[in-house]
Every structure is written in structure tokens, then in C-alpha cells.
Write a structure and sequence with these properties.
six-stranded antiparallel β-sheet, 453 residues
Length: 453
């Protein structure tokens, strides 16, 4: 009975002392779990933002690749145009040289004819031709001489006519070549401006990619900080758990030592009682009975007190908590290319260009009308488009009308009016985009030409 009481006391002490530390430790552990849960949510959000930025970066990188290809193609066209200009210039110089020679010949011929005219007047209308005719010796000789003179005169006239025809032909050809040269020079100017715009766009896109990379790196840094915080919280939880176990172990050892001392004391006292009983047994049996009765009562009293203490301890010590579109309208059909297209001179004329969003301004207009089911003929340029349909005033302008702008030349750019002072078109700096023509650059370039197909 005594041994059971001692074991009960020992257990109560272990539970009681351990509980003094476990409540605080458990509360801290629960707080750490809550903090870690919040950190995990923040890490997930950071991962989502990183993925979003990576996707945007990937799209921009693809667009920059397309821009580089467009720049290469446009530069190639610039070089081709330069070669064509050089060849045309060479042809013009050759023609001009030929014209100089012909002018010299016509000048000499003109001088000869003028000399003959003066001789004719000085001789009273008689010329050497007449002397030749009158110097004939017979009728047949006369006929021969008249034919010869007529042939000479006719030859002079034919020569003049031939020269005038050649001169006119050369002048016409020269004018044609000069017109072609002017057109090529305009094209070269447009291409040079276009390449400059594309290079600027590439710089802008590169800057945006750099910005996205910076934001992505910031999110990676934030994620790293959150992971470190989570690891620190996990380490703190482990530390608290170790401290809790150390405290429980220390409390258990202290309770065991205390219980052992108490047991030894009680055993020593019991031995003393037994010795006293043996000494008094031979002299006074009645006193022995009284002593034994008193000792028994005392033992029962001690046992009852120990049991009450154990009950009280069990009541006071709580159990530890556990620690846990494509549309059909000419106005909207091109929207799918907004943000993922590039301006390429001559673009929009092949399926490859269309599939990859490579348009120039007129190529986009022709494509948009075809997609909307409106045939406006084979693909041409802005000069062709401005002569199609019917011209209307700006006050009558409606969505779907063509609007023209004076850029590198008059009517050098065209777009489709979408309403509210805006138009959609393939712009040099943006590719297909909706731009404002009510203010800014396009307002300055808008020349008032509006064509309704």
C-alpha cells in the first residue's frame, strides 16, 4: 500500500511539474504554426506573381525576336532600295550622256540647215540643189539629178524627224526614270524611319524586359526571405519542443529524486518503529497493541493524505495540448494582332506574314477588309487605296472608313477609323494598334482625307 502511494505521488509530481512548462511551450508552438501558415500563403502568392512575370517576360522576348526579324527584313529592303536607286541613277546618267551627244548632232544639223536657208535667200531662192538640177545634160540625167536632190532633202528631213523622235523618247524615258527615282527615295525615307522606330521599340521592349526581370528578382528575394522566415520558425518550434522535453525530463528526475528521498525517509522511520516495537514487546503487550494501533492509524492517515495530494495534483495539471476572339467586322477583326505584331514594309502579302502578324499599313487594311468579307481588289499601297471608294468629309466620318496621314510623304500612312477619334492600323513603332488621331502625333499627321469603301 505504501509503495503504491509513493508511485502515485511520483507520477503526480512528474505530470504536475511538466504541466507548468508545457502550457506555455504549447501556446508558443501553436503561435509558430499560425505564423508558418501565413508565411506559406505568402510564399504561394509570391510564386504566382513570379510565374505571371515569367509568362509576360516570355511573351515580350518572343515579340523582341519578331522585332529583330522585322528589323533585319526592313534593313534588307533598305539595301535593295539603295541598290535600285544606284542603278537607276546610273541609267539616268547614261541617258543624259546620250542626250548631250544627240543635242550636239542636232545643233550641227541645225547650223547646216540654217546655212542652206541663208544660201537660198542670198541666191534669190536658188540653191546648189537647183544648180545641180540645171546642170543636167539630158532628160534622163535631169530625172536622175532631181531624184538625187529629192533624196538628199528627204534624208535631211527624215534625219530631223528621227532626231526629234529620239529626243522625245529619251526625254520621256528620263522623266519616267526620275519619277521612279523619286519613288525609290521616298521608299528609302520611309524604310529609314521605320527601322529607327523598330529600333526604338526594341529598346523600349528591352527596358520592359529588364523591368520584369527586376520585379521577378524582387519576388525571388521576397520568396527567399519568406522561406528563411519559415525555416527560422520551424527551427524555433523544434527548439521549443526540445526545451519542453528537457524541462519535462528535469521535472521527472526531480520528482523521482524527491519521491526516492521520501520513500527512504518513510522506510527509515518504519524501521525505527519496528525496533521500538521489538524492544517493548517483551515488557508490555498492551502497550505494544496501543503502539501498533497508533502506528497503524498514523500510517493510514499518511496514506489518506498522500492519496488526497495525488488527487489534487491530477485535478490541477491539465493535459498537454497538441501543437498543429476573332470578329467579323473590319473595325475589330484586327484586334487579335494588337500587342503581338510587327511592322514590316511590304508585309501582309503572304500567308507567312499574316500568320506571324507582319504587316505594313496598307497590307493590314487590305487583309482586314478581306477578313470581313469585303473584296477591295488585289493588295496595293496607300496611293491605290486613296483612289478607291468614295471620299467623305471628316464630319461624316464613320467606323470602317479609311483615314490617311502625311508621314514620309503625302498620304503615306493609312488606317481604319474605329470611332471616338481613334483608328486601328499597323504603325511603325507598335505594329497593329489602336491610336488616337484627335491629339498628338497622329492628329498632326492626319490630312483630312477620309475614304468610304
Amino acid at each position: 500500500m505504501k509503495r503504491k502511494s509513493m508511485l502515485a505521488l511520483n507520477l503526480a509530481l512528474v505530470l504536475g511539474v511538466g504541466s507548468l512548462y508545457s502550457v506555455t511551450g504549447t501556446a508558443k508552438a501553436e503561435s509558430i504554426d499560425e505564423q508558418r501558415a501565413k508565411v506559406q500563403v505568402e510564399i504561394q502568392e509570391a510564386n504566382k506573381e513570379i510565374n505571371r512575370l515569367q509568362n509576360e517576360k516570355s511573351k515580350l522576348v518572343d515579340r523582341i525576336v519578331n522585332l529583330n526579324l522585322a528589323i533585319t527584313d526592313n534593313n534588307n529592303k533598305v539595301e535593295e532600295t539603295k541598290k535600285a536607286i544606284a542603278a537607276t541613277t546610273k541609267d539616268i546618267k547614261k541617258l543624259e550622256s546620250e542626250i548631250v551627244v544627240l543635242k550636239e548632232r542636232i545643233t550641227k544639223r541645225t547650223s547646216l540647215l540654217e546655212e542652206r536657208a541663208r544660201s537660198f535667200q542670198e541666191n534669190g531662192g536658188k540653191t546648189e540643189y537647183l544648180s545641180v538640177v540645171l546642170g543636167s545634160t539630158s532628160f534622163s540625167d535631169l530625172i536622175g539629178r532631181v531624184h538625187a536632190v529629192t533624196t538628199i532633202v528627204q534624208a535631211d528631213q527624215d534625219l530631223i524627224k528621227e532626231f526629234e523622235a529620239d529626243k522625245k523618247s529619251l526625254e520621256t524615258k528620263q522623266t519616267s526614270v526620275q519619277d521612279k527615282l523619286a519613288e525609290l527615295e521616298d521608299t528609302q525615307g520611309e524604310l529609314a524611319e521605320m527601322v529607327s522606330q523598330l529600333k526604338n521599340q526594341k529598346v523600349q521592349q528591352s527596358e520592359l524586359v529588364a523591368k520584369l526581370e527586376k520585379e521577378a528578382q524582387a519576388n525571388l528575394n521576397k520568396k527567399g526571405e519568406l522561406e528563411q522566415k519559415d525555416q527560422a520558425l520551424a527551427a524555433e518550434k523544434i527548439r521549443l519542443e526540445i526545451e519542453k522535453r528537457e524541462r519535462e525530463e528535469a521535472a521527472r528526475k526531480a520528482a523521482a529524486e524527491k519521491a526516492a528521498k521520501e520513500a527512504a525517509r518513510k522506510e527509515s522511520k518504519a524501521n525505527e518503529t519496528k525496533s521500538t516495537k521489538r524492544a517493548s514487546l517483551s515488557t508490555d503487550n498492551s502497550n505494544k497493541s496501543v503502539s501498533e494501533s497508533a502506528a497503524g492509524n498514523k500510517s493510514n492517515s499518511d496514506s489518506s493524505r498522500n492519496e488526497r495530494e495525488n488527487d489534487n495534483n491530477r485535478t490541477e495539471a491539465p493535459a498537454p495540448k497538441s501543437a498543429q476572339s476573332s470578329g467579323g467586322s473590319v473595325v475589330t477583326v484586327g484586334n487579335k494582332y494588337i500587342g503581338n505584331s510587327v511592322y514590316v514594309f511590304g508585309g501582309g502579302r503572304s500567308q507567312y506574314d499574316i500568320d506571324n502578324g507582319r504587316f505594313d499599313c496598307s497590307g493590314f487594311v487590305y487583309w482586314a477588309f478581306r477578313e470581313a468579307g469585303i473584296d477591295i481588289g488585289p493588295t496595293g499601297n496607300t496611293d491605290t487605296l486613296k483612289n478607291k471608294g468614295t471620299r467623305v468629309s471628316t464630319s461624316e466620318m464613320q467606323p470602317g472608313d479609311l483615314v490617311f496621314f502625311d508621314t514620309y510623304k503625302k498620304d503615306g500612312h493609312v488606317g481604319i477609323y474605329v470611332g471616338n477619334g481613334k483608328f486601328i492600323g499597323s504603325q511603325g513603332s507598335t505594329g497593329v494598334a489602336i491610336a488616337n488621331m484627335s491629339s498628338g502625333y497622329w492628329a498632326e499627321k492626319f490630312n483630312g482625307r477620309v475614304v468610304r469603301i
